[in-house]
Design goal:
By secondary structure, this protein is α/β, with parallel strands linked by helices. It has two domains: about 1-80 and about 170-250, 3-Layer(aba) Sandwich (Rossmann fold), CATH 3.40.50; about 90-165, no CATH class. Helices cover about 40% and strands about 25% of the residues. The relative contact order is 0.17. The chain binds adenosine-5'-triphosphate (ATP). Adenosine-5'-triphosphate binds near residues 14, 39, 40 and 42. Keywords: ATP-binding, Nucleotide-binding, Transport. GO terms for molecular function: ATP binding; ATP hydrolysis activity.
Length: about 250
């Protein structure tokens, strides 16, 4: 079976400097792979390449065996790719349900269709949205304005918006960023459940305990290059990884 996601010798340069430098790895269908690395290692840049916000200088990106390297971001979404961002991307003046229904409608009929039929969200989109709210345990907040949610609830809403599109490969960019300590286990459990439900997940995360608790393998980036990609126990014991994190707790 083709990997759900593969990057092959991916390189992105700015001003002659390789920000992402010949990175190659593959995630099997249903795998949860974490991407870690010191600040400035190139993690967000790698995500931008995979989601299509930037184009690589060389190398390929494959989704389910299909080369998507030259496709625009929205076309990659059509091929099953979903991404959350570090910054909050919800419409604060809409309710929680409306935010998710809009995303579901866009998935069902395309982004223009979602705007045109905004006053009449169709049954399939409503069902998808209700399912996404159940999965993220936000159903009880469906009528609340998104702008009134706590930070932790907003992160869940972002995940619900993502799930409403029904992606098979999910990129999570620092899902725990800005979360209160007591909110971390809840969101971790939610990500675990999304993974159990069959999604392939690539997750950038600084909380190493979250990474060790969730990831099946860990890819370590350092100065744009892939330093290691292995089982968590092997990565933690890897001398090169320890060296890269010198002065920072792993
Ligand atoms: N558009 C850009 N122009 C110039 N330099 C950039 C650009 N994007 C990223 N960089 C540089 O590339 C390097 C990698 O940045 P990137 O944000 O990908 O790292 P990161 O691993 O996500 O870091 P962090 O953990 O701090 O979020 C950094 O040195 C950054 O300054």
């Amino acid at each position: 079976m083709a990997p759900a996601l593969a990057v092959e010798e991916l390189t992105w340069r700015i001003g002659g400097r390789a920000i992402v430098d010949g990175v190659a790895f593959a995630a099997a269908p249903g795998e949860l792979l974490a991407v870690i690395g010191p600040n400035g290692a190139g993690k967000t840049s790698l995500f931008n390449l995979i989601s299509g916000l930037t184009r690589p200088d060389s190398g390929r990106i494959l989704l389910g065996g299909r080369d998507v390297t030259r496709l625009a971001p929205h076309r990659r979404v059509r091929h099953g790719l979903g991404r959350t961002f570090q910054t909050s991307s919800v419409f604060p003046g809409l309710t929680v349900a409306e935010n998710v229904q809009l995303a579901a409608q866009a998935a069902v009929s395309g982004p223009i269709g979602a705007l045109a039929v905004w006053r009449r969200i169709g049954g399939p989109a409503r069902d998808r949205a209700a399912d996404a709210l159940e999965r993220t345990r936000l159903a009880h907040r469906a009528r609340a304005l998104a702008g009134a949610l706590s930070h932790g609830e907003k992160r869940k809403l972002e995940l619900a918006i993502l799930l409403a599109a029904g992606p098979s490969v999910i990129l999570l960019d620092e899902p725990m960023a800005g979360m209160a300590v007591e909110e971390v286990p809840d969101l971790s459990e939610l990500i675990r459940q999304v993974h159990r439900d069959g999604a392939t997940i690539l997750m950038v995360e600084h909380h190493i305990e979250v990474v060790l608790g969730l990831a099946e393998r860990i890819a370590v980036l350092h100065h744009g290059a892939l330093l290691a990609c292995d089982r968590p126990a092997a990565v933690v014991d890897d001398p090169a990884v320890r060296e890269a994190y010198l002065g920072e707790p792993l």
